[in-house]
Amino acid sequence: MQQNHIVNKENLILVDQTLKLEDLRKIDLNDSQIITFDFISHKLLLANKISHQTSETYIDKNEYEPIQDQLYHFSNWYELKEIKKLIEFEGINIGEFNYLEFFLFLVPIVRKIIELKKILQVYSISKIFATLSIQQLIKIFEKEALLLGKDNSIDESFFFDSIKFENNLLKFEIPSKFYYRSKTYFDKLISTLVRTRKFQNNKTVLLVEFDTIKCEKLISNLHEKGLNIVFLGFRRPAIWNKRSLSIIKENNVDVITPLNILNEHKEEIRHSSQILKKNFKKLFSHDYLFQQFFKIDDVSFWNFLKPFLSKLLDNRIDESIKNIIVTKSVFQKYAPKSILLFSESGPTEKASIGFANSADIPVLLFQHGIFHDTPQGHTWNTFTGSVLKKSNKFIVWGESMKLYCKEYGIPENQFEVLGNPNYDSLFNKNHKTSNDGHVLLITQGPAVNFHINDLLISTNDDYEKKLKLICKTVVKNKKKLIVKLHPYEITNNEDKLCKKIDPKIKVIKKGNIISLVNSCSVLISLGTSLSTAILEAHILKKPVLRMPFAEWMGKPDLFRKQFCFNTNEEEFAETFKKIYEDEAFHNKIIKIGHEFLNAYLANKGNAAENIAYYIKKLVNEKCQIH
User: In 3-state terms, what secondary structure has residue 232?
Assistant: First the structure.
């Protein structure tokens, strides 16, 4: 934290990424203090050599962590007992459908609030100038600021307002409503290519929002075990290319076509939407309740937040109703004996869990990533629906996750160690590991607001610094570098940063990760998450280096085998060089991966068969009961 005494200034100028330099230059900056609230405005001022401070310098770093817990709490506003009934449809809480999106919207707002409070305590000023969102937030402290610029409306967009499409050549986005409407017609068209044979028994499993190609092994094993397979996906199509079509056809998967169901329920959708919109008006009459709920250090920000939450609910209401109606129809028509899903967080998954729990149908949640095993990590895993909360069984990959479940109080009768079916082919194909000499850097920057720390200017500076160090080191050692960005996250200007160091560096966002890992000489990981590409590198016996970055979930490997070899900025250059020059060290790093792999993955090469056998047994038991 910076100042503890009162600072006298004529003008206090508070800016964010909406800042335009021409607006700033209209103010006398001689007796002014400029404070930036984000990385974009910070970089803009730096580039133009304009003196300024960053908002985070007014806060002790340890003050952010309790706020993260409050953000989880705020995102669960829909659980308030006084208003729950107003936002229910078919017994399912619609407010819960958008909690993650609301969380992502809240993070930058709450960060600004706690920093603004400190800044306003420090300065004694005549005038405050601020960009629009900051100007509006200042009002919650019963102060006024002059608007810097001509903006008359705050960006009201939410994370899922649009669907982003991107490959290595182009990127574009389309409104979510247009995407879902188009997808229903596309599903209808595709259904004409698939003629599912009539199911011969009632042993049906429902796959919710599955990736057809990634789950090919599991799907084929379920079919071989005599189970009927039904695919339900609002967000994710079952078929999008020749291979996915082939998988669906060969395994007689019945793909739900929402359009047919929605056409039968048009009047119900219209009527239900009207009722819920009336309920929402009643909901937002509970001002005192929300003012008390959305409060930080006795400062309520509900008046600022109210129009945004209202818009979010209003924009999502029709899709939420359609999702619930289609899911209910699927349960009524097929009476599935088991529900399989990879997350508890999505709307389709939540609707499926709701109807399954009401009908006493077992829900199986599959582990879908490598989790941080720290307390902060577990809190995040639970909040994002990655860890069992409302499902009946948690299908985990290996003994390390068994330890995790025991550590965090998941009862032994609620998890099964069965492995990861997506890696069966990697173990069985006996891959010929090639080595064209390239270095593969897997990187994920802090652009998505998972944690307040992701938004800090110091975090973004640190990311750029480490990315540059890795690029310079690899180039200095005369190695070809391929930088693979996370496929579904916002970029952090990596392409420009890397190519400034060496135009030959290849930066890609989409691509066959297995192929890239298989042909690399070394894999380097830089990012906030634990990439499954590291696991794939271990399987393919590649040396892995990880440079820790922004570990707001704490250091991983709390009680499991070391995930991979960690290095730091000071040691990276020497460590990287040593991999190529010291065979014993090279083998030591591979051994670390091998030991982690043995503890983290069970049923290597036959996980799909073991999972399918377990599900068949579960379904048979359910059929006998009925």
Answer: strand
